[in-house]
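Human:
If only I could read backbone structure tokens as easily as an amino acid sequence. I am handing you a single protein, as its sequence and its fold in token form. I hope you can help me see how the letters and the tokens relate. Thank you; the sequence and its tokens follow:
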Amino acid sequence: MGENEKNYIIRNYKDEDSSQIAEFDLISMLAYRYNGDYINENIFCAVGMNGEVLASAYIAPDQSWGLIEKEGNSEEFVFKLIIDITVNETKKVPPSVTDDLMKAVMVRAKQISAKYPHKRITLSHTITSDNLEEIDFYLSNGFITKQNHLVMKKDLTEPIPKVLLSNHINIINWKMETEEELVGYLKAEADSDHMGVSWSLNHLKWTKSGAEWDTFTAFSGNQIVGSVMTWGLGEARSATENVFVLPQWRRMGVARAVMTEALIYLKEKGKTEATLGVLGNNCKAIALYQSLGYHMFYTNIEFGYDL
């Protein structure tokens, strides 16, 4: 084989690749199969001459993407496409594989961006701050730091005081069993954000199907007031994420109450830790989480490539 010849090809993902990808990246495989936001033309595989999957990469819309067709967005608003590349560490993978996957992803991302010439679109990837090799790789491909994400941890073996709200607000472990309820949740999430951002219906359904998923949602009558979502992260730990309160219900203790309800539930289920992510510049949220007993766990850095 010549020096410049490669013993692999880069092609789009096929459904029959899923079993191989599951062996080195189970989470991505589940997204490819069950999350409708991940489509084959936005997923790429490096495949060896014997059909072995050496690595995979994807781009997928984040929650901002639901607004991409909407007119009147601020010129400063940035739409994000999430990118990730994962290597099959059980195989001998040539170093050029990740470079070639990045090139394929870049070409596809620029094709998507060209459909929206008046929108600001960026490729986004988040890396733990101690993963210097991966940081070097993304920096070498033109990515720059955008913002920090703090991951905080709560010790559930400590006492968790229950928070009482006024009688007309009721917190329930909401199962969201109908399409109407799912859509209602997403509308409330969007209404809680000043830009109107929420998850997609596909992403919500996919997350809801995961292990140990629950929401604890505050209602005033039939109106959603605020919510927190939890899901399993192993035997001992669960996530406490997607915390929101609608603007007119803020400063009433709703966020503290729904989170406390979730933490008590997780503790009763035998969990010993709960974690969450928060933007490093969100002072109010950080103060709330610290008051609930969360402490720093580690830092993620979000990198972006403006298309």
